Amino acid sequence: MRLCKEAAAAAAWLSPKMERVRWAFSFGSWQPRCSEWLLAARSVPEEERERIDKFVFAKDAKAAMSGHLLIRKLIAEKLKIPWNEIQLKRTAKGKPFLAHPILDMIPNFNFNISHQGDYTVLAADSDLQVGVDIMKTEFPGSSSVAEFFRIMNRQFTVHEWNTIKMAGDEWSQLDMFHRYWTLKESFIKAIGVGVAFDLQRIEFHVSPLYLEEGQIYKETIMFLDGEQEEDWVFEETMLDDRHHVAVALGKEDSFGKCPAQVQENNRDLSKFILLTYEDLISSAITMAPEDPMYWNNFKAKKERPSRQRQMPV
Q1: CA-derived radius of gyration, the chain
Q2: Strand (E) positions, 61-198?
Q3: In this structure, is the dihedral angle defined by the CA atoms of residues 11, 12, 15 and 18, taken in order, positive or negative?
Q4: What is the pLDDT of residues 99-150, one digit of tens each?
């Protein structure tokens, strides 16, 4: 414990403590001007810039761009590492992490992002494992709801399917389905195990059954292999009437880490702050010259794939 205290003291001297962060950006409503898109492109590393350029649809390019900008904004503003000196890598399962010498003196810095529907979201905490997931409720594009549920049958337990089926009409059932999906994905992303994890090993008992837009809830509990996991907290919120967000928060498993008190650290819940493009880019330092062709490539993209079914009126 003495070593943990020494590391924490050194981290406090080197950099302000990373407070809990919850950010969201609506890339779905972002229609970037040429100057905005090119500035954003100049503010990410070459390999990320090239990866984003390869997306077929503009929606996906905007989602990826905003996710990378959110991560750099977090690190630059909260850890005081200059934007252009931030080194990001990914685990074998694709989870981004900060690779920087200062981290040797900062215990338990964790962040995670997710983008789906119309939003990119970021959650960060200095003491806990963090996983975040967002899902937009919408009808499946090429099948009936019944067929979609049949295909996804093995992803949920009997208890979870019963809760989904009792939610009401098809739209309400889909809404509950997407709520469960964010919960499961947030946990999987927090522990960093990837798609090989058997989702039926985890079962959620959701509470309350219905969530109000803009409120934050942490009453839902998780069972792993039939045993309640008291060391995990799940924050749930609705960004709007269609977007579910779940944040999984749990203790570090690594040997030698300072122990985290999940309940104590999460007594006060934090709402997601909706950021603007100006917020995203406010701390940016450009890393490349302007490339007009990058804008031309973006403008040539179709916004999104067409969908066959719309939400009920």
Answers
A1: 20
A2: 88-90, 96-98, 110-116, 119-125, 129-136
A3: positive
A4: 766 555 554 578 999 999 999 999 999 878 999 999 999 999 878 999 999 9
